[in-house]
Amino acid sequence: xxxxEDLPFQPIRxxxxxxxxxxxxxxxADPGSHLRIPDFLTYVYFVxxxxxxxKTRDAGMMEALHDNSILRAMWKVISAxxxxxxxxxxxxKELRGSKTYxxxxxxxxxxxxxxxxxxxxRGAGRHGSRSSRGVAGAGR
Length: 140
Hints:
The protein is an all-alpha fold.
């Protein structure tokens, strides 16, 4: 497997994703551009390769390497912070605008305004990857 050509993500990273990296290629004037951004391409890879039960040894190995390196990078960010950290898990099927969605968004906003780092999951795989999800209780 040639990592650079076959994977929409780099399996071994030393830093967490920045939003600009995940959204690279998005153009507000092109409604279909979201289908080409790295975040969506990684989601497609994850779904096509078996979701939480990878279909092949190679897919499982690359996902595990990626998840572990993101977890390590996340802990570096959290441990370098002097502020409390929380992770708020959001339901994949929760509709935007629902009472629950709005309540969670408002809670996250209040916590952020109070100086709490929201360590929610971010980055490639955010649509379903196992270890890239936020870690509840990660705060100090």
